[in-house]
Every structure is written in structure tokens, then in C-alpha cells.
Amino acid sequence: MANLISRSQRPPLFVAVPAALIGLLLLLPPIYLVVRTFDAGTAVFDLLLTARTGGILLRTLLLMAIVTAASVAIGAPLAWLLERTDLPMRRVLGVLAALPLVMPSYVYALIVVLALGPRGMLQGWLEPLGVERLPEVFGLPGAAFTITLLSYPYVLLPVRASLARMDPAFEEAARSLGRSAVGTYLQVTAPLLRPAIVAGALLAALYTLSDFGAVSLLRYHTFTWSIFIQYGSAFDRTLAAGLSLALMLLALALVAMEASSRGGGRYYRSTPGAARRARRIALGKWKWPAAAFAWGVVAVALAAPLAVLGYWVARGVSAGEPLDVLWTAGRNSLYASGLAALAAAMAAVPVALLSVRYSGWAGIVLDRLTYVGFALPGIAVALAFVFFATAYAGFLYQSMPLLVLAYLVLFLPAAAGAAQASLRQVSPRLEEAARSLGRTPWQAFAAVTLPLLGRGVLAGATLVFLLSMKELPATLILSPIGFKTLASAVWSAAEEAFFARAAAPALLLVVAASLPLAYLSFRQEREE
Amino acid sequence: MSGMSIFAGRTRLSVWALLAVAAAALLGACGGDGDETLTVYSGRSETLVQPVIDQFTDATGIEVAVKYGGTAELAATLLEEGDRTPADVFYAQDPGGIGSVESLLGQLDSSTLARVPEWARSPDGLWTGVSGRARVLVYNPERVSEAELPRTIEELTDPKWRGRVGWAPTNGSFLTMVTGMRAVWGEERTRAWVEGMVANDTAVYPKNTPQVAATGAGEIDIGLVNHYYLYRFVAEEGEDFPARNYHLPGGGPGSLVMVSGVGVLEASDNKELAQQFINFLLSTVAQQYFASQTYEYPLVEGVNVSRLLTPLDEIEQPQIRLADLSDLAGAQDLLRAAGALP
Asked: Which is deepest, A101, A356, A523, B289, by most CB within 10 Å?
């Protein structure tokens, strides 16, 4: 009954109009890819229908499965420890554990190769023990290791937000009925977290599909690797477009699987009353093993790569390399990423409302479309914007608004997924109660739904912020001319093998990204 | 509940405030730029190119706005922009990059073209090389003695080099070299070489720099690279960095010399300034900068090569025009058929 009442209405204008505009924007890359694929003609099929394509596809799916499973295995327990237990130093850990997301994957992979390569730093330390050569880091193990460390925050952040919003009454009921703490977690908490875990896992999976930096340095040939060869060494953007279109279809199939696994469950309380904050669980004798796990993740995923970067900077400075303070690039990075996070937060709300609260094809189509840009290589999305902006909106070309729109298309699902997961935890009866008291749909939304969505939208916007900080292809192509970011400074130096010069902006990238995270965490702590 | 309503009010207020700030910021960022500015798309990195551009501005007073990016990405961008491009000049890392946008380029002055040797520019006068880079073998002198080094690139398929050599089969310079092989050797011999290298467990790298690093680390003994990366490693790691360059003798395609290339967009309404800029890149001042700061080969007469380099006239280059080596997709097909690319 509740579903019939709450899902059958037509969406009000404040949902329908923004949702339609966002949908149009999200359609630009697919339309562009179809246009370019027609230029390539049958050559695309010749390339796709070779025996090798099947192998590449299997390799891609294998890497994706491993990364996704590992990201959930790290991200979900870490989120629970940070949000629900008395883990020592959890506020600092909460900020640090999200930061690997801001590291460009090629920088990360470069460090992995230099540290763990056959004759890398680790081998150098082990040489006195007679180790001449380490086992190959290249291929599947290295690629899976590297991308997992970059991807677990996709799961961590939405699950934390979902835990913070979850009504503790469910768990308390299970405990009072005699379930153990572990039994409660497995039978009550984990199923309730499923939307957030699945949303995060989907992002990790799609990110793995789109990554090029890590797989190229770690020599694991995926589908996106094939696309980049077409752009990068054959200068053939039409064939690349055809392959990108195939990648997009693969991504849409995954998204459809995610949606069907979600089913029609309800994740809000159905009896009257409001959720309280959950009390933190005392870890007791598990405190130190739990702390070791959390700090271990941070040490491997963040501290170790930062130490390598610091070593490069120190070596460069001692060799007389000037250490430029990259104020302008740092400010530009924060500014563009901040706008992107804001735009994504605003766009995520109508997308979430339409797809969760209203039935019909529009919500389903929009929900699927949000993932398209995220799964495509950034260069394909950037070229789509070049194509449309130069033809129809010349005044916007290579301007800040266009760059922010491109970030939105690239990263919207990170924000929309978190907002949707939050919205599923809000009972539609609350809005219905507001409506029955004479509020308009807009008033009910603004007074009731929006405040309850706050934490989820913020988590999503944080993800978009971190992702925009490291974004490269769209930034290089679509930014106003002369606009430099930290990510472009890192790339420009690393491309020419000036590692000392690349390391300083890479460190600064992490520091700059940690500032807003620390502020948000501080604010949340105070609210508690 | 009262706490919640306070939060609600604050959220709504701050959302509107943020909206207003964003709108103002976006409008502020939309300023136009003047007409007397030259716009350059540079596929070569800022570190290497900006000093020359600054010298140009100092010398002529002409402001230059530069969009830096990867050569391939910028070439694709130019092709999408077509005649609506804001760019006046495209400065590409390699002949393949500048060649891929030939249909968008305008004619260069013949006096400019005459300064550069014929092999290093477009026969139709659409682009010219700016600085030269040689294909070399980079080797680790602690693991390979000079006497052991191969006399031809084909010797690397010998079983004694099994697992000791690296290459970057997706790299643009490598593809240009393979195109040179197809032109000089023909299809069959090139394919046999590639198959021999694959059978010999040649290690695959994404590009040149990781090969130089791997050679210095002793991960491989020989890498197939461009000559100038080595000097950056030596500058950062010190003189004892164990890697050296080796130019293959005999005039085969393994000792191809390539160029970075520059051209003026046909759609530019700043063609005179653009031509002036290209003349500057070919001036003694700029050529001397490339020779001494980026360790490349100058392409005009009367400029000294860095003392670290083998002079250009001592390299036994194959007799090919770079403009004839534009079929990189063809080279890629061959590599795919021979099993070097998936």
C-alpha cells in the first residue's frame, strides 16, 4: 500500500525540470560516440569481432571482479569501525582513509612499480639477503592490488553515510531477541547496508573498467587500454569511439544487474517515531586488532606512497631542484573541484528523488544514464563536450562552466548513488505527513526530505570533489586556456620523467584534498 | 526534533548562499580574451616549452596563451573543433601527431621551410620539424659491454637476448620506427622482426621513460627508446646512473631520427603572428635552447649540439622522409597481426 501511494504520483516540476536537463546533459557523450562510430563504419566490427576481443573482455571482467570484492572487503568493515565503534583516533583515520581516492592512478602505479618491481626498492633492501629479483608485480596481481587501494573509498564513504543514518532500533530489536553482536551484524546491519554497499561496489567496478593509468603501467591489457591505443598511438578517434560505445554497453549491463539485485526492499522504519543516533560499540579486546587493520590500510594505501613522494622531493631539493610553491595550481584545483562537488550535490537530489520516489521509465532511464560518463574514458567524454560546445555553444567553449558540466557528467553517479542510498532510508510517510498537514510538495521536500538527505549528499559531494581533484583529460582539454591544476602539474612533470618536480604537486594534491575532508569530519563530530 | 529543524534552516540558507556564490563565480570566469594573443596547442610539456615561449614574448611583445596536453588528445580535440578552433598553432611531440591533423593546416612560408632539411618537414609545406630526436638502444653498461652490443636491430631476436630487452609497442615514436621499417624493409621482413622479438620474450612497457628506469635498475639490459630521456635520469639520479645510449650503425631503420613538428591552423585569423612564432622556434636562440636544455638535435645550420650527444652527422640515419611515415595505424595492424599487441 505504502508503495502504491508514494510511487505512483507524477513528479512535481521542481523534480521533473532539473531531472530532464540533467538527462539531456548525460546524453551528450553517447550521442557523440554514436556519431563518431558511424564515421568508423564496419572497421569497428572488424576490430571487435576478433578472437582477441573475447580474451580482453574476460581479463577486464576478472580484474573488475577482484577489485570490487576486495574494495567491499576493505571498505565496508572499515566504515563500520569508523562509524559504530570506539576505535581510537577514528576521526583522523576517517579523513586519511578516504584520501587514496585523490591520487592519480598512474602516479600510484608508478610508485608500485618502483617500490615492488622486479628490481625495485623492496628488492634493493632484500639484496643483502640474496634476493636478486622479486616475482613479477606486473599483470593481474599488481593491477588488482593498485586499483583496489584506489577504489575501496568508493565503498567506504557511502557505507559510512548509510550507517550514520541507519535507525538503531532494527539492531536493538535483534539484540533484545537474543541475537549475538556478530549475528546482528550479519543478519540485520549488513542487509540494511546493502544499497550503500552495492552502490559503492558498482562505482569501484565501473572505475576499474575506465582506468588506464594503472593498467598500462602494470601491463594488464583491458578494454580501456585498447581504447587508449586507438586515441594515443593510432590517432584514430573514430575506432576509439566505437570501442568506447561497446564499453558503455558493458557498463550499462552491470548497472542493470545492480538495480535488479536491489529489488524492492524497504530500508526505513515503518512504525511511527524518529531514528536516534546509534550508540558506539565498545571494541574491548578487539580494539587493537581493529586498529591494526585500519592503520594497516592507511599505511599501505596512503602513507607508503606519500613516503616515496616525499623521498623524491627531498632528493630533488638536495640536487638543487627549485621547489615552486604551487599556490595558483592549488587554488585552481580547489576552486574547480569545489564547484564540481556543489554542482553534483545539487544534481544528485532530483536524480535521487525521481528514481527512488516516483515510478515509471523516466527515473529508471535517468538512473542508468548517470553511470555512462563514469564508465567511459575521460577523453571520450571530453571530446563529446568539444564536439557539442564548438558547434552549438561557442561562448561556453573552454570556460569554467563547461569544465564543471564535464566533471558533473563524469562523476555524477558518485553523488547520485549516495543520495539514493540515503533517500531509501527516509520513510515516504514523513513526506506524506507533511503533505497531509497542508504543505506543497516543495515545502515537504525542503522541510523534511532534504535535511534527512544531508549526510548522504555530503558524502557523495565529497567523492565528486576528490575525483575532480585528480581528473586530467577533461581538465586539460576543456579548461579555460592557461588554467593549471595540481593534477596537470603532476602529469606534465611525470610525463617527462621529472619525478622530483612531479612529486611536490602530488603531495600538495593530497594535502589540499585533506583540508575540506578534515573540516567536514570536524563539523560532523560536533553535531554528534 | 528541535535540533533537526535548526539544521534544516541552516542547510537551506547555506544552499542558497552557495548557489549565489557559484553563479557569481561562474559569470566571473567567463571573461573573453584580447585579439592580439596567439593561441598555441602544445603536445610538448610545459617544462620543456614554456621557456622558449617566454623568450618569444620578451623578444616580440606578443602574448602567447598555451593549452598543454598530450599530443594525441590535442590532435583529437583539433579534429573535433574543425574550423571553429581557437588555436592558431599546433606544436606536436612527433611527426605522427602533426601529420594526423594535416587536413586542418595552412601553408607555411617557403623561406621558413627552406631552413629545415627536407627529410624533416612536410613536402606540401604544411608543417615543419622543430627539433630532432634519435631512436637509440639504451643499455646498462654494468650488464652489457660495448663489444657485446648488437650491430643491427635485427640481432635482438637472437636467443642470447631472450628476456633481456624492453620495448614500448604502443608508443608513437616506436610506431613511427616500425613504419620506417615497413618503408625500408618491406612488410614481410618487418613482421619477421616483430615476431622474433615477441618470441624472444621482449618486455612490454607503456612508453619510453619506464624503459630507461628499468634499464638503470637492471630489470632489462637494453631498451628501445628515444635518446633524450636518459639525460633527465642522469640529471636527477647523478652521473653514475647505469644507463647509456647506443646509436646503431649501418643506416637501418633502428637509427631513425624523428622530429617534434609545428604547423599553423588554416582556420586561424592570426596567421602572421603564428608564422612569426614558428620562425622564432627555428631561430638560433630557440634552437640553441633545445640543443642545450632539452638535449635534442637542432635542425637549422650553425647551432651546436650538446656535448653529451653524438652529433647528428655521425648518426647513420636511414634515407627516409618523415612525412612518408604517417601510417601509424598500418604499423599497429602489423604489430597486432604479429602478436605484439593484443
From this structure: A101
